[in-house]
Amino acid sequence: MLSMKRATLEKNPGDVSSMFDDVAAKYDLMNTVLTGGQVYGWRRTTTVAIDPKPGEKILDLAAGTGTSSAEYAKAGAEVVALDFSAGMIEEGRRRYPHLNFVQGDAMDLPFEDNTFDAVTISYGLRNVNDPHKALAEMYRVVKPGGRLVVAEFSQPQNAAFNQLYRFFSDQIMPLMAKFSSDPPAYDYLVESIRKWPAQREFAQWVAAAGWRGVEYKNMSGGIVALHRAWK
Ligand SMILES: C[S@@+](CC[C@H](N)C(=O)[O-])C[C@H]1O[C@@H](n2cnc3c(N)ncnc32)[C@H](O)[C@@H]1O
After folding, report:
1. How many angstroms separate the CA atoms of 185 and 194, rounded?
2. Ligand 1: distance of its center to the CA of 61 in Å?
3. Any idea what DSSP says for residue 6?
4. Annotated binding-site residue numbers
5. Which domain holds residue 170?
6. How far is residue 71's CA from residue 40's CA, in Å, rounded to a whole number?
7. Where along the sequence do coiled-coil regions lie (predicted)?
8. Which of the residues in the chain have pLDDT under 50?
9. Rounded to whole angstroms, how far apart are CA atoms 87 and 14?
10. Where are any strands of DSSP class E within the chain?
11. Does the CB atom of residue 30 touch ligand 1 within 6 A?
């Protein structure tokens, strides 16, 4: 649907949600194409970091079409896949009918304090209107001793690699996006990645929300960073 409204960097929740409604059907395919398949490795490393165990309660926020949630459920965990886009959830329910999808807002979670063993968010926090509020909400709903894992685009650490990556994201990705069903959504993707804090600054945001022992690991040279912390 080329007539879609794209979200701006103000991340108005209505615009973000309808933008994802519109891209839902092709979302996972575009992820594979735009990342050259690297997303599969990033997802495997994220699952290892979360370490889902049978019977554990795991909250996957901004879960979209449930691709990440399905992996955690496969390990035997009881997963709640929350997202505010009705379109992404509809696509997710079609693909993974066994998953528990909940429509809700990451900034105002519909759960009691101390409910989950782990809370995680993959490529979602960057799109949330107030990520600090979401980090505080995640802290509230996790049990004491529970864990946080955030996978998000970040900044390549090596200067030469960073330049190459910038060239790819500024010149090549927009060209690739032109062939997608929703080019404006992919302009938003590039701009939102550029605006997102680098590894260390984001680690400070996590700590400021009350989380302890914040650490991170770079994936693909820092194109993506995986931050971990505990309550
Ligand atoms: C890039 S997708 C990531 C989907 C999935 N986590 C994955 O790994 O593929 C971002 C998702 O964040 C959701 N989102 C953004 N802001 C949200 C909020 N405040 N509450 C819940 N979901 C939100 C969008 O609807 C969208 O599905």
Report:
1. 15
2. 7
3. P
4. 65, 83, 105-106, 122
5. 13-230
6. 11
7. none
8. 1-4
9. 13
10. 57-61, 78-83, 100-103, 116-122, 142-153, 212-219, 224-230
11. no
- Give alpha helix (H) positions in 62-182: 67-74, 86-95, 131-141, 159-167, 173-178
Determine the residue of 84, 149, 192 to mutate for testing ligand 1's pocket, defined as the one with the most ligand atoms within 8 A of the Cβ atom. Answer: 84
Q: How far apart are CA 25 and CA 123, in angstroms?
A: 17
**Nearest-angstrom CA–CA distance, 187 and 182:** 9
Cα 161 to chain centroid distance, Å, stands at 23
The count of structural domains within the chain is 1
Cβ–ligand 1 contact at 149 (below 6 Å): no
Q: Please check whether residue 155 lies inside any domain of the structure.
A: yes
Kindly report the CATH number assigned to the domain that includes residue 48. Answer: 3.40.50.150
pLDDT in tens, 121-151: 999 999 999 999 999 999 999 999 999 999 9
| Residue 69 Cβ < 6 Å to ligand 1 | no
Residue 1 lies in a domain: no
pLDDT the model gives residue 5:
54
Q: Is the CB of 85 under 6 A from ligand 1?
A: yes
Return the residue whose CA atom lies nearest to atom 27 of ligand 1: 64
Residue 4 within a domain: no
The residues that bridge with 18 in the sheet, in sequence order, are: none
